[in-house]
Every structure is written in structure tokens, then in C-alpha cells.
Amino acid sequence: MAWNGTVTCSECWQTGHNKNGCPRRKERYEEALVMPEEERGFRERRIIEEWENKRKRNTTRKCTYCDEIGHNRRSCEDLKSHMAYVQKQNVAFKEALLEHLRDIGLNTGAFVQHLPTDRVGFTDPIVLFVQKICWDQVHISQAVNSIPRFVKCFPVRNMGDLQGREMLSVRSLEHWPTGAKWPNEPDTRYNEWHYSLKVVAPTSIAVEPPEGWLTETASTKAFFKDRNSWMWANPENEDYQPSSYYSCEFWKVEEEQQLKQSA
């Protein structure tokens, strides 16, 4: 039988919690604890022993994110707060990028040019057909040094040649409220300037990302997988440096909201 996603407690057999969070089990422990020691049977001694061992484990376990004792990474409040902060910036960035894609008419089926660069063999504009937009490659942490090459295209002159595909990107807009962690100089944003596109024949249908793309959290969780709290640049610290290597000041969400309200 397939699991239906509902947890069943092995202590009281009620759904919605497990043995560790069972209120009846806690009652049994408290009842056994007030009972005179000489009157305790096996069940009472057993539940006291299990409860005390659990409490001891909880007080000695160490979080792999903040290095504090008493909780694990899953329940770390610092990690939850930091993830929420980056997620808020990620949603704001995705909204701005989606608006830009719609403004320029970029969608599957559009014709674009690979803008000329100083790369050998790419001195002339190349006309390409947009086959796919790879939405899963877009996250604000990946866009820091360059918006990823997330648009899959094929040259019109050899449409049947799958070997000739190009992965292109779009350039950041000057009015975007990017933070100190997001350098805007062309020489630091390689993909945007050497693999950027220009729409020459837009589609009549506005681009639409997959359902849930704007607010998905999996990519933010993946970003924090190998991070630790000491990497977090805290504005409240005296030594705070917004341009530090580990900073997460990607997007000025508050400034963007103020601009929208005044528009």
C-alpha cells in the first residue's frame, strides 16, 4: 500500500504526529515521574529512561549551520531567517526578469540575434530560433556574476543540426535595484556580454513560466546546502561589509517596493 503522507503515532495510534511528539506519551512520562520509585514497574522505568535519553541528546546535539548546541539544522532559526531573506530577493529578481522577457517579446518560437562580441568566429550577428527557456537555471545566487545562459537556441541557417545549438542570456537592466553583491560592470558579467541576445522577431504570446516557478524554494535550499552561518554578513555587526565575499546582498527589495509605490 502506498504511503498517503499522513503520520501515524505508534504510541496512541492517532494521526498527525509521531511517537516523539505524542501528548499521551508525555502524560505517561509525567505520571511515571511523580510515582514513588519503589512503585514503578517496567513500563514506568522504561519511559523515564527513554525520555531522559531523548532530553540528553537534544541538549548535546549541535547544529551544522550555526554551530550552536540544542537543535539541528532543520530547526535552526538563523537558517530559516537567512533563507527567507534570500528567497524574498529571489522572488523579486524573478519578477523583474519575467517582466523584462515579456517586454522584449522573448518566448519559445521567437527569433533572436546573438549580439556580436570579440569572440573568434562570432563577429557577425547570428539569427537563431528559440527552442526552449530553461527556467530551472534561474536563481538570484546564480545571477550574481551573470544571468545564466538559460535560453536554448538553434541557428536558422542550420536548423536541423543539433550540434549547432547556442545557450544565450539577457543583460541586466540599469534600473534594477541590485545590491552590493551584484557588480554591474560589463567585464565582471561575462555571460551577459558575450552570450547575450537581441529579439528580432518576438512572439505574439507572452512568455509564461511553469506553475510555481516564481515562488519555488528548492533552489534557495540548494544554495544554503553547503553554507554556514559564519558566512552570513550581518548588517548589525560592527565589522559588516556589504561587498564581502559571502554577502547575500543581491537585491534591494525595500528600495524596489518604494519605487513601485511612488510610480
Would you kindly provide a written description of the structure presented here, covering whatever features stand out?
The structure is a single chain. By secondary structure, the protein is an alpha+beta fold. The protein folds into two domains: 19-60; 77-262, no CATH class. Helices cover 31% and strands 10% of the residues. It is built from six helices and five strands; from the N terminus they run αααββββαβαα. It has helices at 23-34, 42-60, 77-104, 190-194, 218-224, 253-262; strands spanning 111-114, 126-133, 151-155, 166-168, 197-201. It has a five-stranded antiparallel β-sheet, with no helix packed on it. The chain is elongated, with a radius of gyration of 27 Å. The mean pLDDT is 82.
Summarize the helices and strands and which ones pair or pack:
Blueprint: H1 23-34, H2 42-60, H3 77-104, E1 111-114, E2 126-133, E3 151-155, E4 166-168, H4 190-194, E5 197-201, H5 218-224, H6 253-262
Antiparallel strand pairs: 1-2, 1-5, 2-3, 3-4
Helix pairs in contact: 1-2
- How would you spell out the order of helices and strands? HHHEEEEHEHH
CA radius of gyration: 27 Å
Taken from the alpha-carbon principal axes, the silhouette is elongated
Q: Strand content of the residues, in percent?
A: 5-15%
> Class by helix and strand content?
alpha+beta
